[in-house]
Amino acid sequence: MAAALEATDLYRPLAATRPEAFAPHLAASLNNLANALSELGRRDEALAAAREATDLYRELAAARPEAFRPDLAMSLNNLAARMSELGRREEARAAAEEAADLYRVLAAVRPEAFTPNLAVSLNTLSYVLWGLGRRAEALVAAVEAQALSRRSVSGKMTRGSKGVVARIRDFFNK
Predict the structure, then answer these.
(1) CATH number assigned to the domain covering 111-174
(2) Quick one: which of 68, 88, 96, 148 has the fewest CB in 10 Å?
């Protein structure tokens, strides 16, 4: 946590002075800070950091889509998780859907690089939809995430795939 906070504090003035050089580093630091704050249970602060990171990546992706669209997708997935932790499920759904849509486009062009990320974002979307009581939609996203996980180039299961399997099992047991 201390390192993430220090990095953010160091990059903030640099990004203000030279945004073209340092805004990407500030955005990455903010994402790391959001995750660290979340792990400490400081959910409101985590959400604020995740929002700021997403806003920065949105600006960067608007200016240089090829360079920053993957970072925007990652940041949106992170934002969805932070919103979901605070029970802001509808906002989380919108962010998770946007992340999955971006990763779909990226995976269509470079499947080896982005299919695992698409699976992770679909898992996040599944979790959020499940929390909204939209079980059938959650199941569709979970099944797709699981299929992509199994097909991924590395052959490794994506993070959270056990949760996907559990949600599928729960769906059929209801």
Answers:
(1) 1.20.58
(2) 88
* String of DSSP letters for 45-87: HHHHHHHHHHHHHHHHHHH-HHHHHHHHHHHHHHHHHHHHHTT
What would the pLDDT profile of 124-173 be if each residue is shown by its tens digit? 999 999 999 999 999 999 999 999 988 764 554 444 555 555 655 565 56
Query: Which candidate, 156, 103, 150, 153, places its Cα nearest to that of 125?
Result: 103
Distance CA 6, CA 79 (A): 21
State percent of the chain over pLDDT 70: 87
Which two structure tokens, joined as six digits, stand for 167?
A: 């949600």
| Cβ–Cβ under 8 Å, residues 31 and 75 | yes
| Rounded distance between C-alpha atoms, residue 71 and residue 174, angstroms | 38
Say if residue 55's pLDDT is above 80.
yes
pLDDT digits (tens, 9 = 90+) for 115-127: 999 999 999 999 9
d(CA 19, CA 25): 10
Report the C-alpha gap between 96 and 13 in whole angstroms: 30
Q: Where in the chain is the domain with CATH 1.20.58?
A: 111-174
Is 152 in contact with 158 (CB distance < 8 Å)? yes
